[in-house]
Write a structure and sequence with these properties.
The chain is an alpha/beta fold. The chain folds into two domains: 86 residues, Rossmann fold (3-Layer(aba) Sandwich), CATH 3.40.50; 133 residues, 3-Layer(aba) Sandwich (Rossmann fold), CATH 3.40.50.720. The chain contains ten helices and eleven strands. β2, α2 and β3 form a beta-alpha-beta unit. Pfam families: THF_DHG_CYH, THF_DHG_CYH_C.
Amino acid sequence: MRSNVKPEKMGILDGKKAAEYYKEEIAREAAEFTRRTGKKPYLVTILVGNNGASETYVASKLRNSEKVGFNASLVRFEDTVTEEALLGKIDELNASEEVDGILVQLPLPAHIEEKKVIMRISPLKDVDGFHPESLGKMLIGLPTFLPATPYGIMELLDYYKVETEGKHCVVMGRSNIVGTPISLLLSRQGNPGNCTVTITHSRTKDLETITRQADILIVAVGRPEFVTADMVTEGAVVIDVGIHRIADKNRKSGYRLVGDVKFDEVAPKCGGISPVPGGVGLMTIVGLLKNTLEAAKRRTLPS
Ligand SMILES: Nc1nc(=O)c2c([nH]1)NC[C@@H]1CN(c3ccc(C(=O)N[C@@H](CCC(=O)O)C(=O)O)cc3)C=[N+]21
């Protein structure tokens, strides 16, 4: 199938491998934290309803939290839960001495206002980095919790020593939790960083002309296999943030996972590409774990 692949040119940015490396580092630091304080970092995840994909992600967050030596628990609500009850639970977790991090899995049912929920989480426990205080601090470069996915992407670029200095980075997508924050992080001073960033979105004219100018292409458009080979220049580094379940009768599960990038045709052109599965999703969990450890340290240890 991939007969035209030049192996020396195509680097897979393997999120599993990078995540394993970071998780070992987190586990060592968590053990040190526990030795000093007698407690484990503690993450509470709230899941409303029983969306199949959310179940998978939440299970992975719990499994990985325990793997690195955290306490982790899941609070479940029916999708008929009132906004008031959900906010009440958040208040309780905010006030709890034991809880270090709170994550409310998105999306939420339509009758619950996501913004209200996000804003209710204490910024001290906002390990998703979605609270306006966290995002505001990020904007002016103060220490804070970075949103987990952009944080994970920065760690992936760092792990593979992708050169970013002075490069043109095109970010496709302008969401609050991926496109906008990753644009900011990559344009900032630092390594990874110091990129010239262009943001594209659904109203962008002549999209391919812009994406073809990217040295680094971050794709977070939320559309299965949207990016095709003609949109990418030879040698570019492509980071695929999308994850979609496509019906597939040949699989036992009944579906397969694809990203926002048509991997088989884009990969042969790339200097590097993150696959789906096995790419950014696993690094998102790393971002979350790092934030949770940091939250525990800030709440417990004298600075
Ligand atoms: N409050 C909140 N925080 C989030 O961070 C958040 C969220 N809501 N809602 C949904 C998105 C999506 N997300 C993923 C996490 C892990 C994988 C992951 O582990 N993916 C595996 C495969 C997973 C599978 O088998 O389905 C992989 O790509 O290899 C994917 C996606 C976190 N999100």
